[in-house]
Every structure is written in structure tokens, then in C-alpha cells.
Amino acid sequence: MGDLAARVNLSLSACSRRIQRLEEAGYVSRRIVVLDREKMGVPTTVFALIKTAHHSDEWIETFRRAISDIPEIVEAHRLTGNYDYIVKVVLPRVEQYDMVYKQIVRKVELFDVSASISMEVLKSGTAVPVRYAE
């Protein structure tokens, strides 16, 4: 909090009050700590592109529950275009992706899965552009 207060040229108490107001207004949904993935033992990123023949609310909820139980899946998005979903998987080694894949297909029927291994992170973060806030 002290670093943030110094960066925005406010006292610690004023900065804390502003953050509290942003939280109360719903602009701040949660506070997080970003862990170093290398030190945590999960440096490998695999993106799995998923196609399904099912689009019912029931199937989507089953899929949502299946992936929520897998801690290696850190993000999942429903897509437009050629694939229906993309999931971001973080692992110690790429060979362990098969374990995650098997956990998913045991719980839900998929039409096609295509995985890509991230070779290099060019940009990463949790920041959101603030210029669009109302």
C-alpha cells in the first residue's frame, strides 16, 4: 500500500480510503498476489483449443464443473470462430498435459482438442485499461 500511495502521490491513509471506495463501488473485484511460476514449479503453458458437438446449457455447466476441478487450468474462455473454448493450462512439464487432458475427457464428451505449447511469454499481466471506466 505504501508503494502505491507513493506512486500516486497520496498519503497512506488517503490511498487506503480511495481503494476502499473503489472496492465498495465494485471497481475492485478482488486483491491478488502474483506468484512466480518458475519458483512455484509450473513454468510450462499449454493452450488447449476445444471443439464440441454439444452446446446445451447442461453440457456447458458440466464442462464448467469439470474444468473448475482441475487446478492446472488457470483460465478458460468460450470463443467465436472455429473453436468453442480455449483453456490455459500451467504445468511443471509439457508431458503432464496428458494428465489434464484425460481428466477433462473422463467428465465431458469433446469433438476435438488441439493443444499448443507456449514457447515464450511476450506480454502477461492482470492489469486492465482504466481509460474506459465510467
Q: Mind explaining what this structure looks like?
A:
GO terms for molecular function: sequence-specific DNA binding. InterPro entries: ArsR-like_HTH, AsnC-type_HTH_dom, Dimeric_a/b-barrel, Tscrpt_reg_AsnC-like, Tscrpt_reg_AsnC/Lrp_C, WH-like_DNA-bd_sf, WH_DNA-bd_sf. This is HTH-type transcriptional regulator Zrp. Residues 1-43 form the HTH asnC-type domain. One of its GO terms (biological process) is regulation of DNA-templated transcription. The structure is a single chain. This protein is of the alpha+beta class and 134 residues long. It has two domains: 1-32, no CATH class; 38-117, 2-Layer Sandwich (Alpha-Beta Plaits). Helix content is 34%, strand content 20%. The protein has a four-stranded antiparallel β-sheet, with no helix packed on it. Strand 2 and strand 3 (85-91) form a beta hairpin. The longest helix is centred in the first third of the chain and has 13 residues, at 12-24. The two termini are 24 Å apart. The model has no long low-confidence stretch (mean pLDDT 95).
SSE layout:
Layout lengths: L1 H6 L4 H13 L12 H4 L3 E8 L5 H12 L4 E6 L6 E7 L5 H11 L4 E6 L17
Antiparallel strand pairs: 1-3, 1-4, 2-3
